[in-house]
Amino acid sequence: MHSVAPTSIADTHDSPDVSSTVLTTPDRSASCSPALDEKLNAPGSASSNKSLHSSRSREEPISSPRPIRSICCVGAGYVGGPTAAVLALKNPAIKVTVVDRDERRIRRWNSRHLPIYEPGLAEVVRIARDGLGDVSKVEPQEGSRTPNLFFSTDVSRCISEADAVLIAVNTPTKMRGTGKGCATDMTSFEAVAAEVVRHARDGTIIVEKSTVPCRTAQMIQEMIHIQRPGARFEILSNPEFLAAGTAVQDLICPDRIIIGSAPTPEGLEAAQALAEVYASWIERSRIITTNVWSSELAKLVANSMLAQRLSSINSISALCEATGAEVNEVSRAIGADTRLGSKFLRAGIGFGGSCFKKDVLSLVYLAESLGLYEVGAYWRQVVEMNEYQRDRFAARVIKRLNSTLVTKKICVLGYAFKKNTSDTREAPALEIIKTLLDENPREIAIFDPCCNPLVIEEEIRALQKYGPPLLSDDGGCVKIYSDAYAACADSNAILLVTEFDEFMNFPIPAARPAAQAASPAKTALAGVELSKLQLNEEPGCSLDCPDCQMGTGYGDDGANDADTLPKKQVDWAKISSSMKSPKWLFDGRCVIDVPKMEALGIRVEAIGSSGWSV
Ligand code: UGA
Asked: What does the entry list as the binding residues for NAD(+) (predicted)?
């Protein structure tokens, strides 16, 4: 999910600032995956892990577990915030507190303008955080509810008051030291785990929400042995499966919930206590319990397999371009096989986002550190194919434009890594722009309907740190637009880089009314319309709220919170009339209706098809 400076608790999409939930790390040096390797390879480690690892029947009945009445979620970012909000919404009797040491971020969660954008999230927070109706009456009226979602910076106190603590902080790829560029950077996670172990009361359930390397629970276990010998904590792995742009929906209607625990009676009891929390809205058959290691590994494998599917279809798109086959047709044909299924088969310029690359690389590192080099090489190829796909697209653009961009204006439509998000982490757009810049174009125009132009500018400016100026304001050729027509005007070529509905050249089925009917907030409330609820007054914003300052509805991550506004598709005839001939459109997402576009006088080159010919 989301990104950049304001959102750098990145990969677990957590807080906006990497350090925000990192409570104490004396020299900020701790990075755990290599440390985990040592544990994995340490003689005797298997026996010391036995209680977490050994397999035992999960079907045995468990005496009813002590119910969870309060949850503390550490990390107010893209995972922690939405997860806590939906847990609170669905469990009005449970007090859910989200903590983060970033005061500004917490202030924003406690205000009208939330710090992150996800469709439906604002509504869920409104209900759980602000409550419904007048609960001060002795006989509260039907439909009223007391607030049960809180946001705080008092990390240690909130940890000490919780029955269960969810760790939902950033676990990006290590950028230095052992395992650099591949291993998981556990700095934030380790620091928070230590804080939890220090402050949690005896009997607290510790839950790994962040995506972590397999065997991380062992690290927490060892912290407990050292810091709190004799204390009883159960460690559960309960990975998140939220995707950017659909996080609330993914939480409300998940395919599955995975809960990994020790196979001991206490471990199974803790797993059941957490399962009860989810069972308040998710059918039991979707709640899968496993051992901790399976759960930790399952998250990495889920993302790696999805990424592998994309690299597979993207590799086939290259074959299609060379043979005359159409990748969309191939996808449809193979996706109809129920053994394969139709999802994640849309070829494109390669996957982006904060998760896939980092999780595949984490799997590579795990394999290599266990001496399984062939396994590592197999998965590494998934990432390499992704880079090849992106570079191939940029090369095709340059080649089609007669191998020179000098004097030409190129318009990039879309900058975020996928539609309906402002998340730009690992977005292929930036790498493509870098390649095009080497060709010295007259202008590179960028427009994204969801990203705040100021955020894009910041990212481009970061590129020019050690090189020549890039932004037009600084004397370069990159210009960020807040209007699609202005961005496209006078361009020689348009690159469709993100598949926003706004850019489609055919009617998008049931734009508003139906979309509203299926909106996460409504699903969450079983069909009740938010406007019909007796919503309580929401808290105001502080003076430094960027949304209030801009008056635009952009979040500080660049999100446009206007998801209630109808999506307005661009008028391609108008765009075509303002372009320079020959007019080129490079469809990096295989989403454009080619004959329709060509009827407007625009030549289309799409991923996975052989392209325009005279
Ligand atoms: C991914 C997983 O889908 C989530 O289940 C997981 O919880 C999350 O990572 C995480 O670990 O936090 P996300 O990266 O937010 O979610 O978004 P996806 O919808 O999976 O898209 C990833 C990339 O694949 C995007 O660049 C998207 O454009 C691309 N994609 C997706 C395609 O190119 N073609 C497709 O058919 C589908």
From this structure: 100, 105, 171, 211, 358, 425
Catalytic residue list: 355
Does 419 carry a binding-site annotation?
Answer: no
The C-alpha atoms of residue 402 and residue 405 are separated, in whole angstroms, by: 8
> What are the structural domain ranges in the chain?
18-56+67-130+142-296, 401-519+564-614
Burial class (CB in 10 A: 0-12, 13-18, 19+), 551: exposed
* Residue 554 · residue 482 · CB < 8 Å: no
Residue in 238, 209, 76, 227 with CA at minimum distance from that of residue 154:
76
CA atoms within 13 A on the CB side of 326: 10
- Does residue 584 have a pLDDT over 80? yes
**Which CATH class name applies to 401-519+564-614?**
alpha beta
Q: Which of 398, 372, 369 is nearest to 213 (CA)?
A: 369
Give the CA diameter of the chain.
78
Task: Find where tokens 């990075």 sit.
Answer: 31
Ligand-binding site membership of 146 (annotated): no
Residue 411 is classified by DSSP as: E
Query: 344: annotated binding-site residue?
Result: yes
Reduced 3-state DSSP string for 460-488: HHHHCCCCCCCEHHHCCCEEEECCHHHHH
Element spanning 576, H or E: helix 572-578
Task: Kindly give the number of the ligand 1 atom that is closest to the alpha carbon of 499.
Answer: 28
Alpha-carbon span 127 to 135, nearest angstrom? 13
Which residues, other chains included, contact 162 with Cβ-Cβ below 8 Å and sequence gap of 6+? 70, 71, 72, 97, 200, 204
Ligand 1 atom nearest 349 alpha carbon: 33
Lowest mean pLDDT among 115-129, 159-173, 186-200, 392-406: 115-129
- The mean predicted confidence, pLDDT, of the chain is 86
Q: Pairing state of beta strands 95-99 and 149-152?
A: parallel
Edge-to-edge strands of the sheet including 164-167? 149-152, 95-99, 70-74, 164-167, 205-208, 234-237, 257-261, 287-291
Which spans in 131-186 are helix H?
155-161
> Which amino acids bring their CB within 6 angstroms of ligand 1?
1, 211, 240-244, 303, 306, 310, 344-346, 348, 351-353, 355-356, 417-418
Cα(401) to centroid(ligand 1), Å: 31
Q: Which atom of ligand 1 is nearest to the CA of 240?
A: 7
- How many angstroms does the Cα of residue 179 sit away from the middle of ligand 1? 24
Give the CA angle between residues 535, 243, 4 to the nearest 5°.
90
The lowest-confidence range among 54-68, 88-102, 190-204, 456-470 is: 54-68
- Tens of pLDDT along 539-576? 888 877 766 765 544 334 444 444 433 468 999 999 99
Backbone angles phi, psi at 56, to 5 degrees: -145, 160
18-56+67-130+142-296 and 401-519+564-614: same fold? yes
Phi and psi at residue 401, to the nearest 5°: -95, 35
Fold of 18-56+67-130+142-296: Rossmann fold (3.40.50)
Q: In the prediction, which pLDDT does 423 show?
A: 84
CA atoms within a 13 Å half-sphere pointing along the CA-CB vector of 260: 26
In this predicted structure, the answer to whether residue 78 has a pLDDT above a threshold of 50 is yes
Determine if residue 179 is labeled as part of a ligand binding site: no
